[in-house]
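Thought: the user wants the 3D structure for the chain below. I'll pass the sequence to the structure tool as-is, report back what it returns, then summarize two notable features.
Action: structure_tool
Action Input:
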Amino acid sequence: MLESALKLLREYKPGLSEDSAVFLELKTLFSGNAIPPPGLADLKNFLGEKRLFRVIRVSGKTFQDVAYQLVDRFPEFSSAAGMFRSYKTAAGFYWTDIEAAEKVIADALVFDAYGWNPDTFSVIASENFSGCHLSAILAF
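Observation:
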Protein backbone atom coordinates (compact mmCIF):
# COMPACT_ATOMS: atom_id res chain seq x y z
CA MET A 1 0.00 0.00 0.00
CA LEU A 2 2.91 2.37 0.70
CA GLU A 3 4.06 2.33 -2.92
CA SER A 4 0.53 3.14 -4.13
CA ALA A 5 0.26 6.00 -1.63
CA LEU A 6 3.64 7.40 -2.67
CA LYS A 7 2.60 7.21 -6.32
CA LEU A 8 -0.57 9.21 -5.53
CA LEU A 9 1.43 11.76 -3.55
CA ARG A 10 3.88 12.27 -6.39
CA GLU A 11 1.09 12.42 -8.99
CA TYR A 12 -1.25 14.82 -7.15
CA LYS A 13 1.35 16.93 -5.32
CA PRO A 14 4.51 16.84 -7.45
CA GLY A 15 5.89 19.95 -5.75
CA LEU A 16 5.60 18.47 -2.25
CA SER A 17 9.09 17.86 -0.89
CA GLU A 18 9.78 14.33 0.28
CA ASP A 19 11.44 15.89 3.34
CA SER A 20 8.32 17.87 4.28
CA ALA A 21 6.38 17.10 7.45
CA VAL A 22 3.25 16.35 5.39
CA PHE A 23 5.02 13.85 3.15
CA LEU A 24 6.76 12.11 6.05
CA GLU A 25 3.57 11.85 8.14
CA LEU A 26 1.60 10.41 5.22
CA LYS A 27 4.43 8.00 4.49
CA THR A 28 4.32 6.82 8.12
CA LEU A 29 0.55 6.51 8.03
CA PHE A 30 0.57 4.38 4.87
CA SER A 31 3.57 2.25 5.93
CA GLY A 32 1.36 -0.72 6.73
CA ASN A 33 1.45 -0.43 10.53
CA ALA A 34 -1.72 1.67 10.94
CA ILE A 35 -4.89 0.14 12.36
CA PRO A 36 -7.27 0.52 10.62
CA PRO A 37 -5.24 1.21 7.51
CA PRO A 38 -6.11 4.48 5.77
CA GLY A 39 -7.67 4.17 2.34
CA LEU A 40 -6.13 5.25 -0.95
CA ALA A 41 -9.46 6.78 -2.03
CA ASP A 42 -9.35 8.96 1.11
CA LEU A 43 -5.79 10.00 0.28
CA LYS A 44 -6.78 10.94 -3.27
CA ASN A 45 -9.64 13.10 -1.96
CA PHE A 46 -7.42 14.56 0.76
CA LEU A 47 -4.80 15.69 -1.73
CA GLY A 48 -7.46 17.54 -3.80
CA GLU A 49 -6.78 20.57 -5.95
CA LYS A 50 -5.40 23.81 -4.52
CA ARG A 51 -5.12 22.52 -0.98
CA LEU A 52 -2.64 23.70 1.61
CA PHE A 53 -1.52 21.39 4.40
CA ARG A 54 -0.42 21.71 7.99
CA VAL A 55 0.90 19.11 10.41
CA ILE A 56 0.14 19.38 14.12
CA ARG A 57 1.83 17.10 16.63
CA VAL A 58 0.92 16.84 20.30
CA SER A 59 1.97 14.44 23.06
CA GLY A 60 0.45 13.57 26.39
CA LYS A 61 -0.24 10.89 28.94
CA THR A 62 -3.63 9.78 27.58
CA PHE A 63 -5.49 9.82 24.28
CA GLN A 64 -8.03 12.26 25.69
CA ASP A 65 -5.18 14.52 26.77
CA VAL A 66 -3.84 14.77 23.21
CA ALA A 67 -7.35 15.27 21.83
CA TYR A 68 -7.97 18.16 24.25
CA GLN A 69 -4.60 19.67 23.31
CA LEU A 70 -5.61 19.61 19.63
CA VAL A 71 -8.95 21.24 20.41
CA ASP A 72 -7.65 23.82 22.90
CA ARG A 73 -4.32 24.80 21.37
CA PHE A 74 -5.18 24.52 17.66
CA PRO A 75 -8.82 25.58 17.18
CA GLU A 76 -8.14 26.19 13.48
CA PHE A 77 -8.35 22.41 13.01
CA SER A 78 -12.13 22.76 12.91
CA SER A 79 -11.99 24.88 9.76
CA ALA A 80 -9.97 22.34 7.79
CA ALA A 81 -11.41 20.75 4.66
CA GLY A 82 -10.12 17.34 5.74
CA MET A 83 -7.90 15.66 8.28
CA PHE A 84 -5.84 12.51 8.66
CA ARG A 85 -5.04 11.68 12.29
CA SER A 86 -2.66 9.08 13.63
CA TYR A 87 -2.36 8.15 17.27
CA LYS A 88 1.01 6.66 18.15
CA THR A 89 1.27 4.65 21.33
CA ALA A 90 2.69 1.51 22.92
CA ALA A 91 1.13 -1.84 22.06
CA GLY A 92 -1.69 -2.94 24.35
CA PHE A 93 -3.87 0.18 24.09
CA TYR A 94 -7.64 0.06 24.56
CA TRP A 95 -9.94 1.05 21.68
CA THR A 96 -12.38 2.60 24.15
CA ASP A 97 -9.66 5.14 25.01
CA ILE A 98 -9.27 6.02 21.31
CA GLU A 99 -13.05 6.32 20.95
CA ALA A 100 -13.18 8.72 23.91
CA ALA A 101 -10.50 10.90 22.30
CA GLU A 102 -12.34 10.89 18.99
CA LYS A 103 -15.51 11.99 20.79
CA VAL A 104 -13.62 15.01 22.19
CA ILE A 105 -12.60 15.97 18.66
CA ALA A 106 -16.06 15.35 17.20
CA ASP A 107 -17.75 17.40 19.94
CA ALA A 108 -15.46 20.34 19.16
CA LEU A 109 -16.44 20.53 15.51
CA VAL A 110 -18.72 23.45 14.75
CA PHE A 111 -19.92 22.18 11.40
CA ASP A 112 -21.13 18.98 9.80
CA ALA A 113 -18.10 16.68 9.91
CA TYR A 114 -19.58 14.59 7.11
CA GLY A 115 -18.70 17.44 4.75
CA TRP A 116 -15.01 16.82 5.39
CA ASN A 117 -13.09 15.15 2.65
CA PRO A 118 -11.84 12.99 4.35
CA ASP A 119 -11.90 12.72 8.13
CA THR A 120 -10.04 9.60 9.17
CA PHE A 121 -7.89 8.28 12.00
CA SER A 122 -5.60 5.33 12.61
CA VAL A 123 -3.50 3.97 15.43
CA ILE A 124 0.15 3.00 15.13
CA ALA A 125 1.21 0.87 18.08
CA SER A 126 4.78 -0.12 18.84
CA GLU A 127 6.89 -1.09 21.82
CA ASN A 128 9.14 1.84 20.80
CA PHE A 129 6.47 4.38 21.84
CA SER A 130 5.61 5.56 25.31
CA GLY A 131 2.75 7.87 26.21
CA CYS A 132 0.29 9.05 23.58
CA HIS A 133 1.11 11.04 20.49
CA LEU A 134 -1.29 12.54 17.97
CA SER A 135 -0.25 13.72 14.54
CA ALA A 136 -2.94 15.57 12.62
CA ILE A 137 -2.46 16.44 8.97
CA LEU A 138 -4.89 19.19 8.06
CA ALA A 139 -5.93 20.10 4.53
CA PHE A 140 -7.26 23.60 3.90
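Final Answer: Structure generated. The chain has one domain: 2-139. Strands lie at 34-35, 53-60, 82-89, 119-125, 132-139.
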